[in-house]
Amino acid sequence: MRIAPRINALAALPLAVLASSVAMAQSSQSEPVPGKTTTSKNPVTLNAISVTAQASHPAATTPAYPATQVSVTAAQMDDTVNALDVEDAAKYLPSVFIRKRNEGDTQPVLATRDWGVNSSARTLVYVDDIPISALIANNNTIGAPRWGMVSPDDIDHVDMLYGPFSAAYPGNAMGGVMRIVTRTPDKPEVTIEQTEALQTFNLYGTRGNYATSKTSVTASGRNGRFSWFVGANSANSFSQPLSFITSGSIPAHTNGAIPALNKVGQPANVLGAGGLLHTRMLNLDGKFAYDITPWLQAAYWVGYWSNDGQSRNQTYLSSASGVPTYGKASGFASNTYVIVEHHLMQAASLKTDTKGNFDGSLVITHYNFIKDDQWSPYGVLAGTTFTPNGLLASYAGTNWSTADLQGTWRPEGYGGEHEVSAGVHADQYTLANPTYGTRAWQDPDNVSGLYSAGSGKTRTNALWLQDAWQWAPDWLATIGGRFERWQASDGFNFSGKTAVYQPMEKASGFSPKATVRWDVSPAWRLTGSVAKSLRFPTVGELYQLVSTGSTFTSPNPNLKPERDLSGELAVERALDDGSVRLSLFQENTRNALIAQTSTLPAYAVPVTYTMNVGEVRNRGIELAAQQNNVLLEGLELSGSVTFVDSTILSDPNFVSAAGTTADGKHVPYVPRWRATAVATYRPDAAWAFTLAGRYSGKQYSTLDNTDDTPNVFGAFDRFLVFDARVNYRINEQWSASLGVDNLNNEKYFLYHPFPQRTYVASLKLKL
């Protein structure tokens, strides 16, 4: 098909904006675009239409998402993404960033256009209606989604839903909802994939090559009414340094320290590297479904994840005689540890798909930290020796459970003007986080007593109702609301010789939602959405008390829920073989729960604590486009540019010894500019060549924006990273790929030093 130059110019507009602003590169995503008018009035089919033809529509029992959504398919991922893990699938989606520090990272959190990398509880991730978000905390440690509970080869497509505009999702959806949709096997299939990655790293006094090897095996099939999928993958990974040991002064009688500053411009000389992590991970997952009748299906999911890791350090210091030494810097001890984790997730569902007047579903899940222990030496002695005693931090016993019962009523039958959905939700999150002293730090069973503790529970119950009403052929209104009741209890904190039993907290609220969509013509669509949402404090924000590396996390049991008002106006234009979307969005959040890391009097190490910030406002504009067959057959371009004015409107609780203020400052962890772009050329069915890039502007991590020193450990830098990939389908069974992430070898920090140039190669066999 020959495409008019005018249409090509429209589709390439975001790419031109990217180039002119030095922000280039985006995704193997598909944008929701207006489609041609159909004769059916069924509200279920009135979701935002994706240009990805392979993507499936939501099942009849899944409430329609009324606002902006974007999709990427498994085939697109194969062609465009150097993927070792499930979370890599979303690498190039508009305004989406997943903080993956290294191959084998256990803490990859999801950031969206409104909220940054320290807001894990402000987005939701689901696998086939099963939540894998870890709403136990709102941080970069235990708050990351449980990505390992699904195999990459199990994915059919990934949907990104922007904003809290559906009553079916809790207030944690204020940043968005990611839905990972798995495929249903219809015949026996086995896949075997071997992936190798090698990172070259050179920063401060550390230089080396860090390798990752991953083996993945999956099998699936169907026997009559019974279908199944099982997957197993193991990874052996070596990471670059995840931290550096710093000091405001140079240890006496030592050489080798590298003069440097910290993020606020104070002396922070680099004494060595830490977090050189070797991990061995195993993921086992299974999905088993039985069609009780043609319209009723029961299913069971199970996922087991284990991780064994060892972190070592590298000192740059030496004594006057040239012997390596730690200079008695305690950071070398906290960056040396052993970690063992074993987690189990189970879920069961019962769903109907009658395509009649009524449908419903019941989904129950449970996630359990069977074992989660990390032990390290308490301190350092002379030379490169540690104290014999140490600390053991454990999350064993931490768990959560969720239950969702929902139904759909179609008063005029399937394809009628109304589709009314309603549901009941319940969840409970339990935190168990003691830290023990050990007599011999390398023997975790040799416990001497309780050192500190943080524990507690939160419970939430909710009712929601939503009506998708097609009141005219070109108009769809989706109106709904969600009532939630929350309670925090059994809070307990212990430190030193002080034990505190925290008071019970309760809160409740109603969140109305409304979206109106107008298909102006077969090519144009206009969508307006507004919603309130309520996010309650996580049990981790309330009660977690733990040391992470050289940072101490302090609890705050008196937090209030944050209240959010969001709106979006989206204009979409369908092109010949492409699409363009422009979205204007704004979000005002009162009592925003924001974690702040600071140095406080009487504390020798930085302290992280969560506070309620009076009001913040995120407003901006997002431009995204996708076009196939640009200039020549087989060339696909896609790109997005997002600008966000993220401002603290009021923060009366902020106190600064330096006399600074938070009012009028930029919200922490939200970059002002973000952009992505992807160019994929498919000369034939066998080959796919991709060049992609990702740009993010400067971020702050302090409420008063005083962290303005770039390119140092602890800073949040701007970055521009390019990736390349070649994928070759050798035949129906074999495929191979070769790629490079961070092709331009950008060196940047997002607190941690991020991966430098990394080579990735894989070979896949499908039987």
UniProtKB/TrEMBL annotation:
- Membrane topology field: Multi-pass membrane protein
Q: Which Pfam families match?
A: Plug (PF07715), TonB_dep_Rec_b-barrel (PF00593)
Q: Where in the cell is it found?
A: Cell outer membrane
Where in the numbering of this chain does the TonB-dependent receptor-like beta-barrel domain appear?
A: 303-743
Q: So which domain of life are we looking at?
A: Bacteria
Q: Which InterPro entries match?
A: Beta-barrel_TonB, Beta-barrel_TonB_sf, Plug_dom, Plug_dom_sf, TonB-dep_rcpt-like
Q: Which UniProt keywords apply?
A: Cell outer membrane, Ion transport, Membrane, Receptor, Signal, TonB box, Transmembrane, Transmembrane beta strand, Transport
Boundaries of every TonB-dependent receptor plug domain copy: 67-177
Q: Where is the signal peptide?
A: 1-25
Would you identify the family this protein belongs to, as annotated?
Belongs to the TonB-dependent receptor family.
Protein name from the UniProt record: TonB-dependent receptor
Q: Which organism is it from?
A: Dyella mobilis
